[in-house]
Automatic annotation (TrEMBL):
Cited InterPro entries: IstB_ATP-bd (IPR002611), P-loop_NTPase (IPR027417)
One Pfam family here: IstB_IS21
Limits of the IstB-like ATP-binding domain: 40-181
Molecular function as annotated in GO: ATP binding
Name the record gives this protein: IstB-like ATP-binding domain-containing protein
Superkingdom per UniProt: Bacteria
UniProt GO BP: DNA replication
Signal peptide (residue range): none
């Protein structure tokens, strides 16, 4: 990844909810994989139930990507990414963003949050395949978060994409109760 291409000189803003996501709070095994990413060229597939801290972990890594492994990064919630690509189809050719082309050419670490949550259509599967395959071919790490196990993901998106994802990622389960549900509940209801 020594030939990384900066997308921009300033990274997109981190949502307010995740601004305080701390690298030190990330599980030690995940930090270890992350810090070796430049050498291994492997991404991560972080999966678990709702509220287990997957997105929080991803933003903590995202905020430290350049400092810890020296490469540029991009972060997309997958549903927002697909909406952006769809909207691009209706734009005048001079106003097109060409997000999927940019992602296929991006040489840094790509974060795809809530992978697999969207409605699967032929267009969605083709879009995923194009992005993931290009990154697979160029050995570029991608960090995915998902609510789905690898088996469940394969049932949703098929073996072709899942196989590439498994080969290029460390698989990381996140367990525990939904933290969001227990924040404001009285102790006897949590």
């Amino acid at each position: 990844m020594s030939d990384t291409i900066p997308y921009s000189t300033s990274a997109p803003a981190v949502p307010a909810r995740y601004e305080k996501a701390k690298y030190e709070d990330v599980q030690e095994n995940i930090r270890g994989m992350f810090e070796k990413m430049r050498e291994t060229r492997k991404g991560m597939y972080i999966y678990g139930g709702a509220g287990t801290g997957k997105t929080h972990t991803a933003y903590a890594l995202y905020q430290n990507t350049f400092d810890k492994i020296g490469v540029y990064r991009r972060f997309w919630n997958v549903t927002e990414l697909l909406r952006d690509i769809r909207q691009d189809m209706d734009r005048d050719r001079y106003e097109k963003r060409r997000t999927e082309d940019d992602l296929m050419e991006f040489r840094g670490v790509l974060f795809l949050d809530d992978f697999g949550a969207e409605k699967m259509t032929d267009w969605v599967l083709e879009t995923f395949y194009l992005i993931i395959n290009k990154r697979y071919e160029n050995m570029l790490p991608t960090i995915f978060t998902s609510n789905f196990t690898i088996k469940e993901l394969a049932e949703r998106i098929g073996d072709r994409i899942t196989s590439r994802l498994v080969e290029t990622c460390d698989i990381v389960p996140m367990e525990g109760a939904d933290r969001r549900l227990s924040i404001n509940l009285p102790p006897h209801q949590a």
